[in-house]
Design a protein that fits this description.
By secondary structure, this protein is α+β, with helices and mostly antiparallel strands. 27% of the residues lie in helices and 34% in strands. The protein is built from two helices and four strands, in the order βββααβ. Strands 1-2-3-4 form a four-stranded antiparallel sheet, with helices on one face.
Length: 83
């Protein structure tokens, strides 16, 4: 299996918002970024990694996010702000 080419990072932005980013390990550039409240960080990463897997990124972490059981994540509802 390929070594993982993606990594994630969470940054506190202030006023209860957190910036969630998925980076490319080779170039250290962010591929996807989103701002969410604290309780939705896991759901945001799951959605971003699923999208990257659908777009063709060959990553074990992104592939595992598509096969994970949805009952363990929260429904994001209306609290996600896209940048």
């Amino acid at each position: 299996m390929n070594p993982d080419i993606l990594y994630t990072k969470v940054t506190y932005l202030g006023k209860g918002l957190y910036g969630c980013r998925v980076y490319n390990r080779k170039t250290d550039l962010p591929l996807v970024e989103i701002r969410v409240c604290k309780r939705l960080i896991g759901s945001a990463f799951r959605d971003m990694l699923r999208t990257l897997d659908k777009l063709g990124w060959d990553s074990p972490m992104a592939d595992a996010s598509r096969h994970r059981d949805k009952s363990y994540t929260q429904n994001p509802g209306k609290y996600i702000w896209y940048y």
